[in-house]
Amino acid sequence: MKGMIERNSFYIITLLITAALLIPLFFQQPAENTISLDNRTVSISIVKNLPILLILLFITLHGTNENRKDRGWKPLSAEDIPFIILFLAVTTTLSFIFPAADSSYNVSTQGVKGILLICFFALVTALSEELFFRSWLINGLKNAGWPGWLIFSIPVLFFASLHIWQGWKGLLFAAISGSMYTLYFMRRRRLFPLVFSHAIHNALALIFMSVR
Fold this sequence. Notes:
Layout: H1 2-26, E1 35-37, H2 39-61, H3 65-70, H4 81-97, E2 105-107, H5 111-143, H6 148-161, H7 167-188, H8 192-211
Parallel strand pairs: 1-2
């Protein structure tokens, strides 16, 4: 009975968070497929993302210490650094192979405040996505008894679908990088290398766009 309640709770929470992440994309018109980021819009985006992040922090930190470890909450260590470097090297290479369309982003943040806002925005976004697509989904699907190929495929498909507005190049980039992140988490159950490499990549990409 307890196991059934936990599985049902997992499915309900997953559906609600998925809806919160994906439904706004369906209301976005083709002409609006450009994200304009200045100091004000970055601040608004951070505020909008914080409620989902707080919910994800609560549900992934809830439970015993063993539960938290299964969800990837393990201290950052020296052995994580080579993986962070590897992930950044791979995602940087993928960025050149599958570059985002020039119209995908219009970044016009200004000054040190703008750079700090971009870095915080990148961290909030990366932490939210890794908590949901890796920590929450993979652990929850495994505990619900799903087969390994679905435990791998579902987070990758969900993660890629979040980037579909960027076109097929953005979709392929997200699918490949998401596959790499998912395989790593399934094998090592470590969250921080994914969060840091994801956040650094996003921040550097946006900062580069703001000065090009």
